[in-house]
Amino acid sequence: MKQSRATEKEKEALEKYLFQFLSIGKTYPLLPGIENEESLAGLMGIDTDQYVKLKRTFRENANKAALELLKEDDIVDWLNEMPFGDNDTIVALGDSSTDDLQGWFEIFKYLLEITVPEADFTFINSGISNNTSADALRRMGRDVLVHEPDWVIISLGTYDAQRLSFTPGRTLIPLSETWENLSTIDDAIATVTENPPVWITPVPIIPGLLEEMELFEFTIDERDLASVREIITGKRGYIVDPLGRRMGYPPESWYYLSDGINSSLSGHVNTVRELLRSLATAKVQEQK
User: Quick check: helix, strand or coil at residue 131?
Assistant: First the structure.
């Protein structure tokens, strides 16, 4: 009989890397049983109890990170300057860094829930792992506009810059198309809210770690990411970390997972810190 349960090695990979990005319901929202934890656990080859425990662990990590941030005086000051209304709906559109169960958006959510308990915010995480700007644009209506958000935070661009192993002479998404996709996302946001969009730039990757990752067959060049950042810094709204240096300069491996692309919990904390700083202190940028 074919094995249906995950091996110990597979469970280790699931717990230490894969699980936090496996938001299957976002990718296949109409799949029968997609809200059933027992079904989802079965797809991953683990018990329901293990599934629930893993999910709780990542949520708790994000909550603890939020509490640690609240020990910083600047964070408290910046939270007092947030531009949100008490009943605002806040949507995050992005790739793996947004989709992450212990990612920047989850930490950000806990911070606002803790510090503004009287508010009735609605938080919607519309990040899907490995999304390019084209992928995000394709699902914009279903995952963003339908919610009529007051605020949209966009974190895209890293996976546009992939150079596949069999065609290294071009990026997966040409730079001109990245520009067009992000501009169309911006235009779409303007149809549902007068509030400016919030753009989070992609951070550099660590090539040595990426090359060791068996799951990936691509490279990402910092020069390509720098070009994406240049596009983003020309957009209207709030621009978070225009130079992409929140993970250090040069970037420090401590702030990344073993793939050299996705942020560790510490890396996500850096992103939240820069997000709060921008929302509290930066001027809203007009379209260049």
Answer: coil
pLDDT band for position 6 (50/70/90)?
low
Give the Å distances, CA to CA, from 142 to 35, 67, 208.
18, 33, 37
What number of CA atoms fall less than 13 Å from residue 28's CA on the CB side? 8
The domains found in the chain, sorted by start residue, are 62-281 (3.40.50.1110)
Q: Give the ranges where 14-47 is alpha helix by DSSP (H).
A: 24-27, 37-44
**Does an H or E element contain 63, and which?**
helix 48-69
Distance CA 23, CA 94 (A): 13
Q: Pairing mode, if any, of strands 162-164 and 218-220?
A: antiparallel
**Cα R_g (the chain), whole angstroms:** 19
- Residues 6 or more apart in contact with residue 252 via CB below 8 angstroms: none
Given a cut of 80, whether residue 144 has pLDDT beyond it is yes
Rounded CA gap, 131 and 134, in Å? 8
State the Cα torsion 103-265-216-242 to the nearest 10°: 70
CA atoms of 212 and 27, how far apart (whole Å):
27
Tokens 């990718």 sit at which residue?
A: 27
Q: Count CB neighbours of 144 within 10 A.
A: 23
Q: What does the pLDDT average to over 13-32?
A: 83
> Distance (Å, rounded) from C-alpha 221 to C-alpha 168?
10
- Average of per-residue pLDDT across 145-162: 98
Residue 177 structure tokens = 């198309």
Under a CB-based contact definition with an 8 Å cutoff, are residues 268 and 103 in contact?
Answer: yes
Q: Is the pTM here over 0.85, yes or no?
A: yes
